[in-house]
Each structure stands twice: as C-alpha cells, then as structure tokens.
C-alpha cells in the first residue's frame, strides 16, 4: 500500500518546488516461503495544463528470511531391522528432516537426544549432516534385541541472534538373531553334584536324562530333553 503525504514546509521552501513523499506501507504480513520478492513501478503524474507530465520509478522489494519454521521429519517414526552379526560401520537407517527457511535458518543438523547418546552412543553413530545411523560395534541379540533411539533435528537460527528451532523423532531398531551358538549338553547324574557314573549297570536299566539348551532364539535353537543309555563295556 502506498500512502502519499505532503512535504514539510522547510523542504518545499528549500527546493522551491511542489514536493510529495511516498511511503510504502505493508497491508498484510509477508511470507518469504510463498513469495520471496516483489517488483513494481510507481508513477507520479502532475496536474499541468494543458499537458500533464509523469515520471516513474521501478521498485524491487526483496523479502529477507526469518527463522519461522522448525525442521520437519518426513516420518513420525522410523523402524529398522539389523542382524546381530552386522559389522561395525554398516548403515542401519537414515532419518531426514526439511526446513523451509533459507540459508543457515534452513540448514539442518542431527544429533542423539542426551539420554540416547549416553545409553546407546557406544553402539550407534549418527551422522550430523546426513542423518545416517550406523553401527559402531557388533550387536548381540542374546544381550539385547530392541533399541529406542531419540533423534533431534536442529537449524542454525541462533547464529543470527534468533532462536534455534528443533524437532524430534523416534527410531526403533530390532536386532534379529543369527545361529551363532552351538547347543550345550548337560548330563544329570542321579546324585546332585556327583560326576561319577556306575559303569557296571546293565543294559536296559533306567536311562539318565541329558538336557540340551541353546541360547539362540526359537528359530535357531530348541530346548529338548533326551535320554542317554549307559552301555556296559565287555572285554573280548
């Protein structure tokens, strides 16, 4: 909106001419993310007789950015599967956030939230620029099979004296089992704590139970009870 106001008496007296001042007033708020600039002409027309004369001025208005948008993740949460034999440095999942602001106001850096960094920072690494999460060392399904990581995305709005804006997301990582443990067999004797057996027992006597256990999950292991029959050795 252009508002025309008369020139001051001092200005008019000094110039010896009729003068007017133009003032550009915003009628509504601006949004750089919608329109980042304006270009228009201002035309001034006198009231001369018999011929009116005019002059024009080209105005270019550039809308500067304000840090009015926080980074936005492309998902509310992320989920990933990784096998326990995954080598260190292997990619697990990549998070992504976009900030509609420009310049440093729109530059995004990623980080683990404090508690996540303290509890799981030795196992997982988060690239601050790309948002890629990788393993730092081998995982162990038998020790822990599920992790919840909280990730923050920050802009650089505080560099210009404003406030840094932040968003958060959740990353859930499930560790799957591999068959990395052999079954363990334990023979239970009749007397608890005894490791001796009666080699003179005849064939056909009551068998002794042996227990087989495997720390892998149910797809790679079974826990069963078998019987072992002691056979009498006979010298020929």
In words, what does this structure look like?
With 236 residues, this protein is mainly beta. The chain folds into 3 domains: 2-62, no CATH class; 72-176, Sandwich (Immunoglobulin-like); 181-236, no CATH class. The protein has 2 helices and 16 strands. The protein has helices at residues 9-15, 114-120, and strands spanning 2-6, 20-24, 37-45, 54-62, 72-73, 77-83, 91-94, 97-98, 109-112, 124-126, 132-135, 146-154, 166-176, 184-187, 208-213, 224-228. The strands form 6 sheets. Strands 6-13-12-9 form a 4-stranded mixed β-sheet. Strands 7-11-10 form a 3-stranded antiparallel β-sheet, with no helix packed on it. A hairpin with a 5-residue loop joins β10 and β11. The radius of gyration is 39 Å and the shape is rod-shaped. The termini are far apart. 14% of the residues are buried. The model has no long low-confidence stretch (mean pLDDT 79).
Q: Assign an overall shape.
A: rod-shaped
Number of strands: 16
The number of domains is: 3
- Counting helices, strands and paired strands, the structural category is mainly beta
CATH superfamily of the largest domain: Cadherins
Q: Please name the CATH architecture of the largest domain.
A: Sandwich
Mean pLDDT: 79
Please describe the structure with a list of short key phrases separated by commas or semicolons:
mainly beta, 3-stranded antiparallel beta sheet, 3 domains, single chain, 236 residues, Immunoglobulin-like, 4-stranded mixed beta sheet
């Amino acid at each position: 909106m252009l508002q025309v106001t008369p020139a001051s008496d001092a200005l008019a007296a000094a110039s010896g001419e009729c003068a007017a001042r133009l003032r550009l007033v915003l009628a509504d708020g601006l949004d750089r993310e919608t329109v980042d600039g304006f270009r228009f002409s201002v035309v001034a027309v006198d009231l001369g007789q018999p011929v009116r004369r005019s002059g024009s001025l080209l105005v270019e208005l550039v809308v500067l950015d304000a840090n009015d948008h926080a980074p936005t993740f492309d998902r509310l949460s992320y989920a990933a599967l990784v096998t326990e034999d995954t080598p260190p440095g292997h990619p697990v999942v990549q998070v992504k956030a976009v900030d509609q602001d420009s310049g440093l106001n729109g530059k995004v850096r990623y980080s683990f939230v404090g508690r996540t960094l303290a509890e799981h920072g030795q196992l997982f690494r988060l690239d601050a620029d790309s948002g890629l999460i990788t393993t730092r060392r081998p995982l162990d399904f038998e020790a822990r099979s599920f992790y919840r990581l909280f990730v923050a995305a920050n802009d650089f709005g505080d560099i210009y004296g404003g406030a840094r804006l932040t968003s958060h997301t959740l990353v859930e990582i499930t560790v799957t089992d591999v068959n990395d443990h052999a079954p363990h067999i334990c023979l239970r004797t009749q007397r608890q704590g005894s490791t001796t057996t009666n080699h003179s027992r005849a064939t056909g006597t009551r068998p002794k139970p042996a227990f087989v256990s495997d720390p892998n999950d149910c797809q790679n292991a079974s826990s069963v009870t078998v019987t072992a029959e002691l056979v009498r050795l006979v010298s020929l």
